Please model this.
Amino acid sequence: MKKIFFHSSPFSIAKTKVTGGLLNGCIYPKASSISDLKASFAQTGNKGSKGNMVHSEAPLKLFTHNLSRSCIGNLVHAHESMKDDFSNYIKSNFDLIILSMANFIRKNQDHRKIVDALKQVEIPIVLFSAGLQNRLTSVVNLSESTIELLRILDEKALLFSVR
Model:
């Protein structure tokens, strides 16, 4: 079974009231009723897009993974906190990274931090739910870091799924 680092938006986890360090909340439990979904939705930060619940939660439930050796995290935060040890840490602990990055292709976005982290990643990547925020008339509207991110993902991603 795969050891997966799920780089997911904060919408995939319940907000925690516990403070300290690099703590995150917990994953929402499986929903079996509309009232269960409403409880999860009440916790999300982006009320305008119910799709965030789907693209953020779906990978955690779709991909078979080793529960005790996989995690939900943020690659940028890990990269910033581990510095030179980041590449070895990722390679030593995980077999795959799943990125959930819906609507990241949009003008005026700065993706420099995720680009810097992904440059050091030496394990396979799966990009889940890539999409445009708004219609683009030209790639000229995209920042250099967004174009670089697309190039890195084109090179490194085993699967590039779109929304």
Notes: The mean pLDDT is 80. The two ends are 26 Å apart (CA to CA). The chain is about 35% helix and 15% strand.
